[in-house]
Design goal:
The protein is mainly alpha-helical and about 325 residues long. The chain has a domain of about 40 residues. The protein is about 60% helix and about 5% strand. A two-stranded antiparallel ribbon has the order 1-2. The chain is globular and about 70 Å long.
């Protein structure tokens, strides 16, 4: 993919002034033409440069390895390491850990399949169905579109239910282990979105706004970083505190509920700064997006899981 190099702000001055001279040409719209130019120029000089990182990390012959793929692998592996630590810490559980190391290792493959298949199918159903219906082969063209978190969550949930039944594992405890580690993968995935220069935010005059190479000449919110912070860093800290400080794993379903509700709130918040998918736009009133719509049921389910969570002894009685 051709990626334009970021032009330093001082080299854009003449082009910028030419663009802002016509009446109403600026998105900031000060009262006078002079203040229009000065205000927009000040905002432009404050823009955070977009880092020029090739989406392809390295190539082995004809095979190109993308940062996005690496992010998935790293997120899954680090999540697996953290999950192992959880099941090997006896004080976190009411009794023995509900899953063995061998079973956790086996589940890693199930989780990877659920994430990838669910993520792709979810994207097709929620965001790209008309195009795929017109051209079914587009479903296999992973470079057209991408993955949906909500689809990946559904795929992983199905994998967890099937694996738990097959191995006689309490399903809510398996949900909790996976929920505790998912924010790690979300963090790396959103950073990869930023590296790819995709899923950018709405127009912004904030000092940290970014001009994305494929998003036109105007600065935008780096909403991928907002999501990495909320869905990744903040959520993993909240869940870790619940687990290590408040013994949340002793109440099956509590960690799951906290994650699902926390993700929904984070996603809905960031959607106010994120540009909606171009093929869908706003669904209602110039503000409601598909991401918000899909997150509302998650919020309700998360709150329900929190309310129904009971101590392990009571749950099994």
């Amino acid at each position: 993919m051709d990626r334009r190099r970021f032009t330093p702000p001082h080299r854009l001055r003449s082009r910028f002034i030419a663009l802002t001279l016509p009446q109403g040409a600026s998105i900031f719209r000060p009262k006078t033409q002079k203040s229009l130019i000065l205000t927009n120029l000040a905002q432009l000089l404050a823009i955070m440069p977009y880092p020029e990182i090739d989406p392809i990390a390295f190539s082995i012959g004809p095979v190109a390895v993308h940062w996005y793929g690496i992010a998935y692998v790293v997120g899954i592996l680090l999540g697996w390491v953290y999950a192992r630590r959880l099941i090997e810490t006896p004080r976190l559980w009411a009794g023995e850990a509900p899953i063995s190391r061998t079973q956790l290792d086996d589940f890693l493959v199930w989780a990877a399949v659920g994430i990838i298949l669910g993520g792709r199918v979810g994207y097709i159903l929620f965001y790209d169905f008309p195009n795929v219906a017109a051209d079914p082969l587009r479903a296999l063209q992973v470079w057209n579109g991408g993955m949906s978190f909500h689809g990946g969550l559904a795929g992983t949930t199905l994998a967890m239910i099937l694996f738990a039944r097959r191995n006689a594992i309490p399903v809510w405890s398996l949900f909790d282990i996976v929920a505790a580690v998912v924010p790690i993968g979300l963090f790396f995935g959103r950073i990869a979105n930023f590296v790819n220069g995709e899923l950018w935010g709405r127009l912004s005059d904030a000092p940290w706004a970014v001009i994305f190479p494929e998003a036109g000449p105007f600065a935008r919110h780096p909403s991928q970083l907002y999501e990495a912070g909320l869905e990744g860093i903040v959520l993993v800290i909240v869940l870790a505190l619940a687990i290590y400080r408040f013994a949340a794993l002793k109440r099956p379903g509590l960690v799951t509920g906290l994650f699902v509700a926390g993700y929904a709130l984070s996603r809905i918040t960031v959607e106010f700064f994120r540009e909606p998918d171009p093929q869908l736009g706003y669904l209602l009133g110039g503000w409601l997006t598909m991401g918000m719509l899909l997150s509302l049921p998650m919020l309700a389910l998360g709150l329900w899981a929190i309310v129904r969570a009971r101590p392990a002894a009571a749950a099994s009685a």
